[in-house]
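can u do me a favor
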């Protein structure tokens, strides 16, 4: 089984209406569609671009206003997914539930279904500056092309949660990210490689680029999309199937051959998934 995946290096810039946001999103979807993409990944927090839309006083909005755009966001990506016949992981969007804010990844199916995965591990900035709540459950999602999981940015830095996703059957992790400097970017990127090696899976990741000068904590962005594989003979030696140009406005596209994962798990140069010493440490399955 193969799936063609694409990832957007989404350029953040100041806008004045929701229609401008919709037009930019549609542009990326149509670009990916030209490459016959089946799964398209947007970055974490890319909908914070909506906070640059001035309020009635001409000022940028705060994070507490972002959930007000949830229904237009859902309507937009449900429409784009249906029209393009593409699975769209529309990055993350902040939603409000029972008075709390959650950083939530959304998977839009071409048939209109929507699945969500709240971010499980919350960074200090999300907690102290944005009062974000943490998710408490991990799901995997079945598609006609394979089983996938959505783990957002900081989540990928915790081996246990990725191990759980693999134990539940995920062969591909989509990791939307948002980092403001090289340090944060490389933390996420290096951990993506480690998790791909440990679990013998693919990881598709991307981040925001550009700047939102009027939106707090979104003024700086450092991002690059990549499709990452295990480091073994059937795959590229550096474990990079595809990657973008750092901080450019672009998309990347790659084919993920899931059958190769089965081969390396069975008789690869190393068999890290099979060789877990669960007699010494917890089996996260």
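np, heres the sequence
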């Amino acid at each position: 089984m193969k799936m063609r995946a694409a990832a957007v290096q989404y350029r953040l810039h100041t806008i004045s209406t929701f229609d401008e946001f919709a037009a930019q999103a549609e542009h990326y979807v149509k670009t990916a569609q030209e490459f016959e993409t089946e799964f398209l990944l947007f970055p974490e927090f890319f909908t914070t671009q909506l906070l640059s839309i001035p309020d009635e006083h001409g000022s940028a909005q705060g994070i507490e206003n972002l959930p007000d755009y949830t229904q237009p966001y859902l309507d937009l990506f449900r429409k784009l997914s249906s029209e393009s016949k593409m699975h769209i992981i529309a990055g993350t969007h902040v939603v409000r539930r029972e008075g709390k804010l959650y950083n939530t990844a959304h998977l839009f199916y071409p048939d209109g279904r929507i699945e969500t995965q709240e971010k499980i591990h919350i960074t200090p900035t999300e907690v102290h500056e944005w009062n974000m709540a943490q998710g408490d459950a991990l799901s995997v999602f079945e598609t006609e092309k394979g089983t996938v999981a959505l783990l957002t940015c900081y989540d990928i830095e915790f081996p246990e949660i990725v191990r759980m996703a693999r134990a539940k059957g995920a062969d591909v992790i989509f990791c939307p990210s948002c980092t403001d400097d090289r340090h944060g970017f490389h933390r996420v990127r290096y951990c993506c490689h480690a998790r791909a090696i440990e679990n013998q899976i693919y990881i598709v990741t991307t981040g925001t680029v550009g700047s939102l000068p009027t939106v707090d904590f979104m003024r700086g962005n450092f991002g690059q999309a990549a499709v990452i594989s295990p480091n073994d003979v059937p795959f590229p030696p550096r474990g990079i199937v595809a990657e973008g140009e750092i901080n450019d406005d672009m998309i990347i596209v790659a084919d993920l051959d899931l059958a190769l994962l089965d081969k390396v798990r069975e008789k690869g140069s190393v068999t890290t998934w099979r060789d877990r010493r669960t007699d010494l440490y917890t089996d996260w399955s």
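The first strand starts at residue 2 and ends at 9. hope that helps!!
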